[in-house]
Amino acid sequence: xxxxxxxxxxxxxxxxxxxxxxxxxxxxxxxxxxxxxxxxxxxxxxxxxxxxxxxxxxxxxxxxxxxxxxxxxxxxxxxxxxxxxxxxxxxxxxxxxxxxxxxxxxxxxxxxxxxxxxxxxxxxxxxxxxxxxxxxxxxxxxxxxxxxxxxxxxxxxxxxxxxxxxxxxxxxxxxxxxxxxxxxxxxxxxxxxxxxxxxxxxxxxxxxxxxxxxxxxxxxxxxxxxxxxxxxxxxxxxxxxxxx
Length: 244
Hints:
Layout: H1 3-21, H2 29-38, H3 40-62, H4 68-91, H5 94-117, H6 129-146, H7 150-159, H8 164-188, H9 194-218, H10 223-243
């Protein structure tokens, strides 16, 4: 890796931590950067252990706000979605995986933008069992394919009217469990190995620093300003992944 590549990787790891610390809009940046650095498919295994580091930090600080009734509701369909995503990854080459990741990022960026513009409209979604299962399946599949399911859960949290801190605490526990379940699947796909773990070990302190910064920034910087800039970046990068 060149010095520039290391700087990009460190920036992505830092933004990953900021996203776990509370600024949700940062959560798509690391997907794009690591996909360009290491390939869309291989980057999913590289990112996963670092996400777990951020999840542990988030759970440590927000665990008391978790709503376990929603976590139990989401986990079964999310588990099915993880298995489906892993089976799809077995059959898709990196050449085809890049545009797939691009479309996922572009769709999530559009959903995030819609959530920001018309936040109240998501409260009208019917809160029935099928809605929970649909969102759970999407969360599992998207998390396995791209490590980018945060915006989907954010939409679900808005639809069921979870308060801010309950959303953060519930999300922290949910993704800690989901990401832990994904580890053996990623390892069996050859996406996690000794070299990727050494890279994770190098970047893990940057993730932790990002989580601390995210907690600090959450109360001081308007999140919508960050979100709009990062969504614009994610949209452009997603189009480049699709066209490549």
